[in-house]
Specification:
By secondary structure, this protein is mainly α. 71% of the residues lie in helices and 6% in strands. Strand 3 and strand 4 form a beta hairpin. It is elongated, with a radius of gyration of 20 Å.
């Protein structure tokens, strides 16, 4: 059973890697199931044993991309009380940007149109779910009017997605480390302190 499981995992890994390579090389629309099978050195029947079609494969990989983003948003070891460990956040964000950079053309395919909106919404949902216990005790007001927390989350999510999209679609030579430092500096010096979070540098 274990040998079978390992074989299935290995085949799936080959399919995913072949698909990402082909998307980067020729674009999603031009990639066929036969292309994927040839690149992964399997037959079409094996592909269909794992996925219904290339769209099904795309959705599974999209979920993996979401998982990569969620790691930086996990509250574990990042927040103690209302104190944010900024160096830990910077380290995790740098890792995510490095991963994105390695597969930049593929990530561009999931940051286009409907997919980008899904990505933005998923990240906002994760912030809501994982940081609810922190957000619940924070009260942000502007001219005595309480600012809705979903507005704050939407705003911060848009900053993250927007800067990532800019980085991928320009000829910027900014490194993942530099981008992580810049985003954290911009957000940490203003938005996070406004939320009532203390920054542990």
């Amino acid at each position: 059973m274990k040998k079978t499981d390992l074989r299935v995992k290995r085949t799936n890994k080959m399919i995913v890697e072949a698909f990402i390579h082909l998307v980067e090389e020729k674009g999603f629309d031009q990639v066929t199931v036969q292309d994927i099978a040839d690149e992964a050195m399997i037959n079409r029947a094996t592909f269909y044993a794992h996925y219904k079609d290339k769209h099904d494969l795309y959705e599974k990989i999209f979920d993996l991309a979401i998982d990569a983003f969620t790691s930086v948003l996990s509250p574990d070891d990042l927040v103690t009380g209302n104190r944010l460990r900024i160096k830990k956040v910077e380290f995790l964000m740098t890792n995510i940007y490095q991963n994105v950079q390695k597969n930049s053309k593929f990530y561009l395919t999931i940051m286009d149109g409907t997919s980008m909106e899904i990505l933005r919404k998923r990240i906002a949902d994760i912030l809501n779910e994982q940081y609810a216990h922190i957000f619940d005790r924070l009260k942000i007001t502007e001219n005595d009017i309480e600012v809705p927390m979903d507005f704050i989350i939407e705003y911060m999510t848009s900053i993250f997605i927007g800067t990532l999209h800019w980085w991928l679609t320009t000829d910027s030579e900014m490194t993942p480390e530099h981008l992580a430092k810049l985003v954290i500096k911009l957000v940490g010096n203003g938005h996070l302190t406004v939320l009532g979070l203390e920054i542990e540098r």
